[in-house]
Amino acid sequence: MELDDIRKRKEEEYNNQIEAVRQQMKMEEEIKKNVRMYLEDKAYERLMNVKIVNYKLFIVASQYILQIAQKLNGRLITDDELVRILQGLNAKPGGSGEIKIIRK
User: Fold this and answer.
1) Dmax of the chain from CA atoms?
2) Can you give the pLDDT at residue 70?
3) Which residues pair with 77 in a beta bridge?
4) 74: helix, coil or strand?
């Protein structure tokens, strides 16, 4: 009996984790679909690269893009504009706000 209870509890925990991952993936796909409508191709690629490197910045930038989308009147955000948005969101108080690319 005790072993069955442990097994059921572990299975339930595992199923909860799977459901949480599914929900996160669904949310992420929805964000990507919505943001895609307001970005040029190069800007979208850059945002997807940001997602790989800094997921929190991707989420914040996506939310910001969706907020300002109404003000764009159908115009797409360019790569340069996205860089400025990312710099502004990534800037630390008292910091330079620069994005440094280090290649190895």
Assistant:
1) 64
2) 81
3) 39
4) coil
Q: CATH classification of 2-87 is 3.40.50.150, yes or no?
A: no
Half-sphere exposure of residue 50: CA atoms within 13 angstroms, side-chain side: 24
Backbone angles phi, psi at 96, to 5 degrees: -85, -20
Q: How far apart are alpha carbons 71 and 80 in whole angstroms?
A: 18
Q: In angstroms, what is the C-alpha Rg of the chain? A: 19
From first CA to last CA, the distance across the chain in angstroms is 56
The pTM (predicted TM-score) of the whole model is 0.69
Closest CA to 22 of 33, 30, 11: 30
Please calculate the CA angle 31-32-38 and round it to the nearest 5 degrees. 95
pLDDT at 50 over 70: yes
List pLDDT tens digits, range 61-101.
Answer: 999 999 988 888 888 999 999 999 999 888 765 555 567 77
